[in-house]
Each structure stands twice: as structure tokens, then as C-alpha cells.
């Protein structure tokens, strides 16, 4: 779970887009390419699962058994919690007020060896929201950044907790991993992760959970806007939050928290 000595995917991007101008065709092409690539990966994963399940079936296998197996391979719709309906409605209203939308970027990625990985929605969502203003960003830049985020975040978790049991290529990630990042500081000199702020719209609780990297507050405002990643969490899944046009909105973490408080949305910020 080592990390590169210098890693900043924003250096590969064009200057941040002006949110008041029309969306460039390159941004739309990037979104289309991402969605097509994600769909292809999901289909490849589905087909591999299908082959694994049905290869062992005898040609004379019972039709009802085949139907049951086929149904088990279909994606299961995840229901959001109804325990805090008013609070969740406030979260949705906050998204609308800011001109934001949820973007599901899937849960599969590719590791360094080209193998498919599941349970990657946490890292993919962070990367997609963070790099939303990169006009030249494509699916592979987001994927590569998500994988690097995974490696560095897991390094921080291991450093703070000293237990590798819950970590692994396809282990499910949790928001409290970000607390380990804040507590440990960036694991590598020159890494961009220490300058990030990540805010999670927790639909199950109806509030915001924010994690601020050690270097974020020292950045100029323009860079704070660029280094703010927004996530939506629903039971069992993370989604990216982006502007309606797919980019970023002009807001920093402190401004977002202040606005949330004005709208009676609870928030908690974890800093070093």
C-alpha cells in the first residue's frame, strides 16, 4: 500500500472552469466517456459472475434453479433510510440551493495489474468530485486517482490503527477512514491528499460529516474550492456530488458549513 512521493492529479488538468460560463464540449465528452466506460466494466463484471455461476450447471438443470440464479445476479436497489426524512429533505434542498446533483460513478475500478476491483465507490466518488473541473480529465484519470487515494488512505488507516485486517483490494471503505488521514497527516511528502477537504452528505443521518486535511486551510480560496470533494452516502454506497453541469461550484468547506447551518443542516468537521 505504498504511495508515490509526489502526486497531484490537478497538475494534469486545465485551469478551473468558470462556473458562470457555458459548459465546454470536452466536459460533456468526459462525462459521456466515463459513463460508457463504467457501463462496460460493470457489464464485464456481470458476465464474469454469470459464467462462474452457470458453468457448473448441467445442461439438464432445473429451469427454476437457473431462473433463481439469474435473478440473484441482478443489481439490488438500495433503499435510503426513512428514519430521518425531514433531515434528508434538508440535505436535498441544500444540494438544490447550491446547484449540485448526485452522480453515481459505480463501484468497480482496475488495480495496477489490470484486474477488476469491487467495492470502490468511496474512492471513485472522491476522485470524481475532486477532479470535476478538469476539462481534460477522462475516465482513466479519475480511476488512477481513485486507486492512488485508496492506497494512501489505507496507508493512513494502517499507520493509525495498526491493523490490516479490515483493509484489502476489495474491502469496503468507511468514512471514518478519513479520520485516520486527518490524524496521521499525509503519508508521503508532496502528496495532494493532505490538502484535500472531503464533505460527506450523510443521508442516513441527515447531516454533513467533513474531514479537513492539514494543509487545506492554508491554501488560497481558489485552491480550496478546487480541493473540496463532496460525497453523498446512502446505505451501502457512495456517490459523487458535482455541479449540475458536471463541474464544481464556487464554494469552500467553511462556506459550505456556514450555509448548512443557516439551513438547519447539522454538521461536524474533523480537523488535525
Describe the 3D structure.
With 272 residues, the protein is an alpha/beta fold. It has one domain (78-270): Cathepsin B, Chain A (Alpha-Beta Complex). The protein has helices at residues 25-54, 63-72, 85-98, 121-130, 139-161, 177-184, 221-226, 253-262, and strands spanning 100-103, 109-110, 116-117, 197-202, 207-212, 228-234, 237-243, 267-270. The strands form 2 sheets. It has a 6-stranded mixed β-sheet, sandwiched between helices. It is globular.
How are the elements arranged and paired?
Elements: H1 25-54, H2 63-72, H3 85-98, E1 100-103, E2 109-110, E3 116-117, H4 121-130, H5 139-161, H6 177-184, E4 197-202, E5 207-212, H7 221-226, E6 228-234, E7 237-243, H8 253-262, E8 267-270
Parallel strand pairs: 4-6, 5-8
Antiparallel strand pairs: 1-7, 2-3, 4-5, 6-7
- When the domains are counted, the total is 1
Q: What is the CATH first-level class name? A: Alpha Beta
From the 3D coordinates, which CATH architecture would you assign?
A: Alpha-Beta Complex
Mean pLDDT: 76
Looking at CATH, which topology would you report?
Cathepsin B, Chain A
Output the number of helix runs.
8
Q: Strand order, biggest sheet?
A: 1-7-6-4-5-8
State the total count of DSSP E strands: 8
Quaternary state of the chains: single chain
